[in-house]
Amino acid sequence: MEETVGRGLEDVVVAESDICFIDGHEGRLLYRGYNVDDLAREATYEEVAYLLWHGHLPKSAELKAFTEAIGKEAFLPPDVLAFLAGVPAGATPMEVLRTAVSMLSLSDPTSEHVGDQTDRTKALRLLAKTPSIVAAFDRLRNHQKPVMPRPDFGLAKNFLYMLHGEPPVDEDAHILDVCLILHADHEFNASTFAARVTAGTLSDMYSAITSAIGTLKGPLHGGANEQVMRMLLEIGAEDKVESWIKDALANKKKISGFGHRVYRTEDPRARHLRAFSEEIGTRRGDLKYFRMTQKVEQTVFAEKGIYLNVDLYSGSVYYQMGIAIDLFTPIFAIARTAGWTTHVMEQLAHNRLIRPRAQYVGPERELWVPIEKR
Ligand code: SDX
Predict the structure, then answer these.
(1) Is the beta carbon of 157 within 6 A of some atom in ligand 1?
(2) Fewer CB within 10 Å, N- or C-terminus of the chain?
(3) CATH 1.10.580.10: which residues of the chain?
(4) 351-372 per-position pLDDT tens digit
(5) How far is CA 112 from CA 15, 206, 236, in A?
(6) Where in the chain is CATH 1.10.230.10?
(7) Which are the catalytic amino acids?
(8) Which CATH number is associated with domain 224-320?
(9) Which residues have C-beta within 8 Å of that of residue 261, sequence separation ≥ 6?
(10) pLDDT tens by residue, 205-240
(11) Radius of gyration of the chain, Cα coordinates, nearest whole angstrom
(12) pTM over 0.85
């Protein structure tokens, strides 16, 4: 039997991939060799999704056609809209998204095809429809009619338009577009690996993305951004941050938005989100949540030397954009659909079933005892 590896597969390399590179010590992140800082500054989310899928940046005609194809696919099938309208009160957006994405396979006649050109079509449907699912659900749970997507809007702008019922200000649309870029992929994180394990059995794209959404939902992973905002609201004011954090750490609590399995320095995505949190707060004339988050960052680092991750400032960014807290992780899922679908297609292109072993530490030889003698 092979020797056992680090708990949680820490630092275990399980496959080659040419999609995403993370330098945990330098705090560097590349998508297909492009630095995420350059992509955040220069690209659109659609451009990054195209880069992830195709391995190269699109020419302008390719980007135009891709963006239009996403806009056309943003409409939801009637069965999904009917499901969203009938969801029991109190259902969380992540469980609704997980269920609705799974339902998308029912209206796709090629849903059982695996490993052929239809995977790219499924990936486009998933990329285009996840924002519409999240926005339509939020409207319906607030007793409002869903807003039909505008195919002429980009994905980020369309999401805010469908959510709020009116076009967003350009600055908010741009900030969300960059947030989607920053969350688009991240190598073999838990939800991506779940998608690859599912695809590795030659199950279909919808099943793989449903696995990923269920995995992202956890507070140790994608759910952290919602926990950060709930923490800030519970703390309530900047002058209460230090004592609250010190008390939480003294009670061995994990502070959401901090720590990472791979980064041993600042998460390169965090500096963009930190700047956005300050920019939105300045624009809105209220820096409270930016300053509170900054104080949290300083206190945790001073107390435990632990760096922030992508989730810390995204909480105050989305909150200040007027987005409901329980939509933060669905936004992460919307963005990561580009990465998840890319990894599914890479897994299928060089597939071998993913099946590790366990080090058995249970009892060796139990003798049968008839029930009357137990
Ligand atoms: C994401 O993998 C990815 O790439 C994920 C992601 C992506 O883009 O897909 O980057 C997105 O999921 C970011 C992480 C979001 N999660 C959180 O913010 C939740 C809080 N973070 C922790 O639960 C933790 O840092 C993890 C889960 C992110 C990483 O956990 P590890 O690698 O298993 O580390 P660990 O729990 O073993 O902690 C090591 C030490 C421990 O101290 P000791 O007990 O050894 O003294 O660091 C401490 C931990 O207590 N620690 C923390 C902490 N994170 C680690 N202490 C307080 N608060 C924290 N957040």
Answers:
(1) no
(2) C
(3) 20-219+325-349
(4) 999 999 999 999 999 999 999 9
(5) 26, 9, 50
(6) 224-320
(7) 260, 311
(8) 1.10.230.10
(9) 8, 10
(10) 999 999 999 999 999 999 999 999 999 999 999 999
(11) 22
(12) yes
Which residue from 124, 301, 323, 367 is spatially nearest to 229, judged by alpha carbons? 323
CA distance 359 to 4: 7
Distance 196 CA to ligand 1 centre (A): 22
Q: Does the C-beta of 246 come closer than 6 Å to ligand 1? A: no
C-beta neighbour count of 190 within 10 angstroms: 18
Q: Is the CB of 274 under 6 A from ligand 1?
A: no
Bridge partners, 308 (sequence order) = 258
| Helix residue spans in the chain (DSSP H) | 36-42, 45-54, 60-73, 78-85, 93-103, 118-141, 155-164, 170-182, 190-200, 205-216, 224-235, 241-250, 270-283, 288-304, 311-320, 328-349
Question: Using a 6 Å cutoff on CB, does residue 180 contact ligand 1?
Answer: no
Tell me the CA distances in angstroms from 319 to 102, 228, 246, 326, one per residue in order: 28, 11, 24, 10
**How far does residue 129's CA lie from ligand 1's centre (Å)?**
31
Taking the centre of ligand 1 as the mean of its atom positions, its distance from the CA of residue 364, in whole angstroms, is 35
The protein residue with its alpha carbon nearest to ligand 1, atom 24, reads 259
Alpha-carbon span 95 to 103, nearest angstrom: 12
Across 338-357, average pLDDT: 97
Per-residue pLDDT tens over the stretch 63-92: 999 999 999 999 999 999 999 999 999 999
CATH class of the 20-219+325-349 domain in this structure: mainly alpha
Structure tokens at 85: 């309208």
Residue type, 359: Q
- Do residues 146 and 139 lie in contact, with contact meaning Cβ atoms separated by under 8 Å? yes
Chain-centre distance for alpha carbon 108: 24
By most ligand atoms within 8 Å of CB, the mutation choice from 5, 19, 231, 260 for ligand 1 is 260
- The pLDDT tens digits for 25-58 are 999 999 999 999 999 999 999 999 999 999 999 9
Instruction: Verify whether ligand 1 is closer than 6 Å to residue 256 (CB atom).
Output: yes
The rounded Å distance from CA 23 to ligand 1 centre is 17
Joined tokens for residue 58: 């699109």
